[in-house]
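Bit of a strange request maybe. I'm writing a small parser for structure token strings and I need a real example to test against, not something I typed by hand. Could someone generate the tokens for this chain?
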Amino acid sequence: MKYKIEKNTVQETLILPLYSRKLCTELYPNLYRDETAVHLLDQIDYDFSEAEKNSRSLMQRFGALEVAMRQNDLAFEVRAYLKNHPCAAVVNLGCGLDNTGRACDNGRCKIYNLDFPDVIALRQQLLPAGEREQNIPCDLKEPAWFDKIDASGGAVFFASGVFYYFLTRQVKTLVQGMADAFPGGVLVFDAANRTAVKMIAKTWLRTAKIKDVGAYFAVSDAERELSPWDNRLQVSSRGYMLGYNNLKDPSVSGFFRFLARVGDNGMKMQIVKIGFGDRQ
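Reply from user aminoacidic:
Good idea to test on real output. This should exercise your parser:
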């Protein structure tokens, strides 16, 4: 029995990133594979005709490559942390239907997937929690969820495409709270500069009727801009298209490599890594 998703619902916003991850898996199999996305889309009843039509366009294909690189980079950082903290909590902030936590599972870590209650309700049906895994309904901006994470073996948090929708002061409050609650932990997420965030925001701000785009979280030089938030933070960043992978793969055209350089250097598309405190 297929799970029906209607147009213009919150659930639809979860399906489209899933479709992007399936497209990446088909277009760039040497660079990225998300078997969960392929498997889940088979279980979903939704009209994908528009997404399929768009998937032939150049920018849609580049967008899929962006999604692939971002997920790969975050997974790289999660696995790197688990090498030194094998029993850590692996926490997916704003998880949607993403399965990166399970993809990084080393057999000993604890996996937590956090999102709004209606998202977690859908996730429970399509991706019920496995062993050592919890799907937690919450609002990331409210620190009540901190208590639900067992960080006794360390903690690595990651957020994919999430903080663009936060005001700068909300990200700052969250990071300071996490530094208090999770010393020795690490947070990794994608970010971009003001120009890029305005482009990202254009589509959803129209529906949200929000005027002040400038208040939204954007960053050009992560180390310089975010370190002053709290003296316990160890901040670093890498370009997210080319910072972890040179994209010298036959499936990636020279033009896409050029666009990747523009993204990393011009738009400051980056993976930001913040270490908390001195237990690292």
